[in-house]
Every structure is written in structure tokens, then in C-alpha cells.
Design goal:
Elements (H helix, E strand, L loop, with lengths): L1 E4 L2 E4 L13 E4 L5 E4 L4 E3 L6 E3 L5 H36 L4 H28 L10
Antiparallel strand pairs: 1-2, 3-4, 5-6
Helix pairs in contact: 1-2
């Protein structure tokens, strides 16, 4: 649907609410083939013909992990926004004398906060459950 205004066509600006997409699931067939399959989809191995269905994974566990990973990402985004806005406002109101402090804030962010955050997320990702699927 297009809306015409002043001789130009504009796309309609409807907001679409879609459910959260999940991360692909790594499926390793017994023959050695590997595929990345969306949750709830089935995959047939091209080598041996076995069919693997990811809906065998408990739904509440899978989506719980997806929500937890999204929360980790939102934590870092909110922290970056708070620090960034605070630093920007300080520079605006305090002027140039606050600029060295902004450099210290950036150093803290990149040297201390982000490595610890990445370590926490990677540790959690390594400890995620592994499910044994049965071929259909």
C-alpha cells in the first residue's frame, strides 16, 4: 500500500509486532553433517536421509535461554546509554575541562566493563544445556 502526497509515493508506516526470533540450533547428524536449524523446524540430512526435528527440545527451556540472552544484551545497551548520556551532559555543562574525564570513562568501559560482560555471557553460553534429539 502506498500513500501519495505532493506527487510522491510513501510507503505506509504500519508497525508490525513480530514474536522474538530464536537463535539457530546446531544439529549434528550421526553421519557427521552439521546444519543450523530454527527452533521448531525439521532438517533432513542430505548424506544419510535422517530427519531431525528441533521441536523435541522443551519450548520453555529454549525460550527461557533466548530471553536470558536478550536480557544480557539489553543490560549492556542500557549501561552504555546511561554512561554516554551522563558523559555528554557533563561535557555540555562543564565544558572542555571535563573532556579528559570522558576519556577515562571510555577507558573504563572498554578495559574493565566490556571484558567482564563478555566473559559472563561466554561463560553462560558454554554452560547452556545440550539436548539429544532422536531422528524421526
Amino acid at each position: 500500500m502506498a500513500i501519495v502526497r505532493a506527487g510522491r509515493a510513501f510507503a505506509s508506516t504500519s508497525v508490525e509486532c513480530r514474536p522474538m526470533r530464536g537463535a539457530p540450533i546446531t544439529v549434528r547428524c550421526d553421519c557427521g553433517e552439521v546444519a543450523y536449524v530454527a527452533y521448531g523446524d525439521a532438517w533432513s540430512c542430505p548424506t544419510c536421509g535422517r530427519r531431525w526435528n528441533t521441536s523435541q527440545i522443551p519450548e520453555d527451556e529454549y525460550w527461557g535461554i533466548m530471553h536470558e540472552m536478550r536480557r544480557y544484551r539489553l543490560e549492556v545497551i542500557v549501561a552504555a546509554l546511561v554512561i554516554g548520556v551522563g558523559t555528554a551532559l557533563s561535557i555540555v555543562y562543564l565544558g572542555r575541562r571535563f573532556f579528559p574525564m570522558a576519556l577515562l570513562v571510555m577507558t573504563f568501559w572498554f578495559v574493565f566493563y566490556m571484558p567482564r560482560w563478555r566473559k559472563k555471557v561466554r561463560r553462560r553460553a558454554r554452560n547452556l544445556p545440550h539436548w539429544q534429539l532422536r531422528p524421526d
